[in-house]
Structure formats: C-alpha cells, structure tokens
C-alpha cells in the first residue's frame, strides 16, 4: 500500500479562449489517482469539505480506486480551489484559495502505513497542517520509504527563505525526492540544479530526480548520475504532468520491489540500468498526461497498449 498525504482541490481551468472548465486536482491527490490507475493500492489522507465540490472530488477519488481515509471529509470545512490559467503552449500557472488544517489523530499513526509514504506541495509547507505532515514523515521513516515532491506554489508561499528551510527539513526526512527545475530556480536562484541535488543527497535523500520539461529528467544517487530523455508528445496542457511523473516513478520503484523502508539500502545501490528504467517510465507516464486535458494520467492498460502498438 502507498499512502499519500496532501491536498485535494478543484482546478478551475481558464482556457486560452476564456472558457472556464473544472477538473479534480491537487498535487498529492493527482499522485494518488495516477498510482491507483497504474495498479498500485493507494490511500489518501486529505481534507475535503462536505459541500458540492468536495462531494465531486470524493466521488472522483473513489471512482479511481483511491481509499480516502476516515477524517478526510470535514463537515464544517470548505473544499479548496485552484484557479489555473493556460498559455498558448499549454503551460499552466496557478492561484489558490486553500486551507490546510491540522490532521486528525487517526491519520498520524505511522503503524497504519506500510510500504511508502508520499507527500508534497502545499500540504508540506502550509500551516497548521504542515507541522503534522513533517512529524508523520519523521516517525514513519524507520519503517517506510518516504517520497517527497516540493511542487512549490510561490503565489501562496511567498517567503522563499522560510519555504526553503522547511523543504530542506523534509528532504532530510525523505528517501526519494522529485523536484522540477523551475522549483529549484525559485528556491535557489542562480544555483545549478545538479549542485542542489548533490546537497540534498548529503542531507539524507537516497534518490533525487530533477524534471527538466521537454529535456527529460536528471537523476542522482550517491553512485550514479544520468539524464533520461523526455518522450515526444503533442502537448495539450501540462496540468498534472509532474504529479504523473512522480506516480510513474514510484510505480516503477515498487515494481522493482524497492518501495519499502527495508529496501532503502538496495534503492541507494541501484545500478544505472534500474535508474534509467525507473525514470524512463516516469517520463512516459508524464508524457501521456500532457497529451490530454487536465490531470488525467494513463492507466496501466493504456501504457501496455502503447508499448505493444495496439
């Protein structure tokens, strides 16, 4: 089981034509849906209001096989919203109306987590809930693989120094870290992404992967560095592409039998061929998501059909 902790939001997407379309979203929720579609049992600790948007998101998660943990629906809460704009090339920018509250006690028990715990985006940095997320990761790491994607949102977390400090604390508690080159440029202006990744490995991460958009992705462990090309695709939009990449990467690590706390040393010692396969699979899942509208990742069956040419 892979457990994901973080926000679920309604993406209100403004098309270049001006048309407004709503889609389920939220980086952690997107990761959970993508993992489930790729055939991996997934639980989501999130926060939804008992309102029409919240009920729509809950139905979407359940329809995609995601187990939404008890306490995630809050009767007095309001469901979060992201206002998304697309430029003519399909690149997305975001503004958020979001709250991330303290997490219910039942969801903070690391003994209920087996295999892997993933988090990221606003849930990892937005108080008061971010403190609970960090504490959960620190307690769970002794038994679980920890995955983290900063997925920075400068429109919400405007204090870069404070955000950078929190992200470094999370990196130090994580095994697998995926981050975009755009996130790193905001967090560490004028520093090379490979130098930052090296510093994150020294903090405690086992595998750091930097996504480079249409240039592919760069992966680093204490033993290997490699660049993996992007899969060519006609881009509809980039919404959810990074989340799909994260899910594809975790799914590939799981299929290698390496996505548990006990296999941490084996992931750290993975050879170049294994890393190339893991990152290549992530690039493929992200590309398929870019080829259609919204955060709509592929299923395992779709990937199999593409591989066989059917």
Helix content: 25-40%
Main CATH class? Alpha Beta
Level-2 CATH architecture? 3-Layer(aba) Sandwich
Classification by helices and strands:
alpha/beta
Number of domains: 1
Count of DSSP E strands?
15
Q: List low-confidence stretches.
A: none
- Quote the average pLDDT: 92
Largest sheet: 9 strands, mixed
Name of the CATH homologous superfamily:
Ribokinase
Beta-strand residue fraction: 15-25%
Distance between the termini: 30 Å
CATH topology, what is it called? Answer: UDP-N-acetylmuramoyl-L-alanine:D-glutamate ligase
- The gyration radius over C-alpha positions equals 18 Å
Helix segment tally: 10
Helix/strand order? EEEHEEHEEEEEHEHEHHEEEHHHH
Within the largest sheet, what's the order of strands?
Answer: 6-4-1-10-11-12-13-14-15
SSE layout:
Elements (H helix, E strand, L loop, with lengths): L1 E4 L3 E6 L5 E6 L1 H11 L4 E4 L2 E2 L2 H12 L3 E2 L4 E2 L5 E7 L5 E6 L18 E5 L8 H12 L4 E5 L10 H13 L3 E5 H7 L5 H11 L3 E5 L5 E4 L4 E4 L12 H15 L8 H5 L3 H19 L9 H9 L2
Parallel strand pairs: 1-4, 1-10, 2-8, 4-6, 5-7, 10-11, 11-12, 12-13
Antiparallel strand pairs: 2-3, 8-9, 13-14, 14-15
Helix pairs in contact: 1-7, 7-9
Summarize the structure in short.
With 310 residues, this protein is α/β, with parallel strands linked by helices.
